Amino acid sequence: MTCVIPVENINYWRHPSLAGIELSQAKFTHFSFDKHVHLDYHLGVVTQGAQQFVNKGCSYQLGQQSLSTLNPDETHDGQSCYAEGYCVNVMSIPVAYMNEISQELGIKEHFFSAPMVEDARLYHYFTQLHEQLIQGQFSELASESHLLYFLHLLLQRHPAQAIKLSPQQGLSPLQLNVIKQRIHDEPWQNTQLATLATEVNLSKFQFLRQFKQATGMTPHAYLKRVRLELAKKSLSRGVLVADVAQQLGFFDQSHLNKAFKHAFLLSPVQFQRRML
């Protein structure tokens, strides 16, 4: 009998002394992540197998001894390199938390210049830290102390580098930021494509093509992902699922359930129970 479930196991945690930080652990076989973005920094390691993903048009293979370093709002996907699948541990770090650490090192904002680094020392430290956090082996003081040490080590060993911008085609960075900010500020709005296009003085067709060229996602897919990322944050605070659906512009609770499970492999209720 053929198994139709694309994932063997996935779990989410929130450490009580690390506000806003999300931990997850999963094993994937056939499941592939569509192109998507996150609102936070996502750091992760593969403990078995290997994951391949595309970021900014380049293909990467995340294996053992490597650490993924994905910036907020960077489009990427993900799937297994091999038929037997892979196991992955991920930590989501809020932007404000990372900025606070960066500023202590004299950096205004830190953006990783590559979506992964080859660093055996950081790989092993992260793997042990992640496991100890989800097992509750640290006191509150020890938890944040170890996390801060790891992040300081990461930023010092892999400092931000100047990114060379290619000749601008399509939407300018300013225009793109205007559109993204509108979506982030009013995710509940069922904004029309024509409205967004008018913001940057383009036709609907021009805007759709240029937004996808710049982000790798259609405006609708981007809006949907932002809503789902915000839904996770609301659910982690204990907001009722029905209220989350209404506040973020989903048609109804069933619509949120379907989209959430497709993206995160758990229903909103299951995710909330694990986080709380």
What this model shows, in words?
This protein is α+β, with helices and mostly antiparallel strands and 276 residues long. 43% of the residues lie in helices and 21% in strands. It has helices at 95-104, 120-134, 140-157, 173-185, 193-199, 204-215, 219-236, 241-247, 253-264, 268-275, and strands at 7-14, 22-28, 33-36, 41-48, 51-55, 58-62, 66-70, 76-80, 86-93, 116-118. A hairpin with a 7-residue loop joins strand 1 and strand 2 (22-28). The protein is globular, with a radius of gyration of 19 Å.
Unreliable runs, pLDDT <50, ≥5 residues?
1-6, 162-168
Could you give the distance between the termini? 36 Å
SS summary, helix count: 10
Order of helices and strands: EEEEEEEEEHEHHHHHHHHH
Q: Count the strands?
A: 10
Gyration radius over CA:
19 Å
What characteristic shape results from the CA principal axes?
globular
Strand content: 15-25%
Strand order of the largest sheet: 1-2-9-4-7-10
Task: Please bin the fraction of helical residues.
Answer: 40-55%
Can you summarize this structure?
By secondary structure, the chain is α+β, with helices and mostly antiparallel strands. It has ten helices and ten strands. The protein has helices spanning about 95-105, 120-135, 140-155, 175-185, 195-200, 205-215, 220-235, 240-245, 255-265, 270-275; strands spanning about 5-15, 20-30, 35, 40-50, 50-55, 60, 65-70, 75-80, 85-95, 115-120.
What is the topological layout?
Layout lengths: L6 E8 L7 E7 L4 E4 L4 E8 L2 E5 L2 E5 L3 E5 L5 E5 L5 E8 L1 H10 L11 E3 L1 H15 L5 H18 L15 H13 L7 H7 L4 H12 L3 H18 L4 H7 L5 H12 L3 H8 L1
Antiparallel strand pairs: 1-2, 2-9, 3-8, 4-7, 4-9, 5-6, 5-8, 7-10
Keywords: DNA-binding, Transcription, Transcription regulation
InterPro entries: AraC-bd, AraC_XylS_family_regulators, Homeodomain-like_sf, HTH-like, HTH_AraC
Protein name: AraC family transcriptional regulator
